[in-house]
Design brief:
19% strand; 339 residues; 35% helix
């Protein structure tokens, strides 16, 4: 166990989102944040204080949120529509489909406190459907960053993309950069633009392209969002205790999926496990499985996520432990496939 490398923990991705958005708004007055009584939970209170003319509050009215955001985008503004993911992608689904995607308005939809981040508030506040419903909508990019670096880059690239895009963030403090797991000198300030010598550069993150977090030749974990960290922990556990080397991929962009990378991984003929903070129906795992089956790949395969049942109530950590979305649980599933 002493050989296990643990990445440096940084900020919650939501905090990196808010800080990055502030840095963009400071130099571009066309950057607008629209919130639905969620500036506090979205970490946008400082943004509103600094840029009161660049934030719109619609109250608890998610459908209006998306409609207003689409209208502003159609007038040339770069709009970030920020709301809890469970409400944004359910109450406002028709507006996302018609006002944003169908009408090709370049709104950045930001789903906060996603997955089971609201934990103890129960199923009504869990967002375990968003990948499934949004993958079914044409002209919409779907992204779930895994760490602080991916979050910063996702915001910068989303602002420049000028296309409809959905970004998903949880509440938990996440690693600074999972590619670099042996940081020294504290947590770098990503949003200042000052890069340290060992910090990743932006060419390691590109929307639509998966990011290899860890190399390995015995099997592959493909995770997205906050499940990439337990997949990484599982890989380190397998290496330390069993000498098994697992590749770990952050498939931060769920749509469009990086089929080139998936094909390369599948061609190695080794087992593949997908891990997501989402219902096992309609998410990352089924998207990967669909590609594998339609392209004659027959790798041993397992989808790890939330099963089709009423979810248990508890913190995110407790729910992850219950469904074995942990380093130990994922490693155990890997050993079954390898056997």
């Amino acid at each position: 166990m002493n050989d296990i490398k643990m990445p440096t923990v940084g900020l919650a991705n939501l905090e990196v989102f808010a800080a990055t958005l502030e840095s963009l708004a400071a130099v571009d007055r066309n950057i607008i944040a629209v919130t639905s009584d969620s500036r506090g939970s979205g970490k946008l209170t400082p943004f509103g204080q600094k840029f009161p003319k660049q934030i719109v509050e619609v109250g608890i009215a998610e459908q209006n949120l998306v409609g207003v955001a689409a209208g502003l985008a159609s007038a040339g503004k770069t709009v970030f529509a920020v709301s809890p993911a469970c409400f944004l992608t359910a109450r406002a689904l028709e507006q996302i489909k018609n006002d944003v995607a169908y009408s090709d308005n370049a709104v950045v939809l930001v789903g906060i406190s996603a997955g089971v981040s609201y934990g103890a508030l129960g199923t009504t506040h869990h967002s375990l459907h968003d990948y499934a419903v949004l993958r079914a909508i044409n002209n919409l990019v779907v992204v779930a960053p895994a760490d602080n670096f991916e979050t910063e880059q996702a915001i910068l690239q989303a602002a420049a993309l000028k296309k409809p895009i959905y970004l998903r963030f949880g509440k938990k403090n996440m690693p600074v950069d999972l590619v670099i797991s042996d940081w020294s000198g504290g947590v770098p300030q990503l949003v200042t633009g000052e890069k340290t010598d060992n910090q990743s550069t932006s060419n390691l993150f590109q929307l639509g392209k998966g990011r290899v977090i860890r190399e390995g030749s015995d099997l592959t974990f493909i995770g997205t969002g906050e499940t990439v960290l337990p997949a990484f922990e599982a890989a380190e556990k397998l290496a330390s205790e069993h000498g098994i080397q697992a590749k770990v991929v952050s498939m931060h962009t769920i749509k469009p999926l990086d089929y080139e990378l998936i094909n390369t991984i599948a061609s190695e003929g080794k087992p593949i496990i997908t891990v997501e903070e989402h219902m096992v129906n309609g998410g990352l795992g089924e998207a990967v499985a669909s590609y594998l089956m339609q392209n004659a790949h027959r790798n041993s395969f397992k989808i790890m996520g939330i099963p089709d049942e009423y979810t248990v109530t508890g913190s995110q950590n407790e729910i992850f432990k219950h469904y074995e979305i942990t380093g130990e649980g994922i490693a155990k599933e890997a050993l079954k496939l390898l056997a």
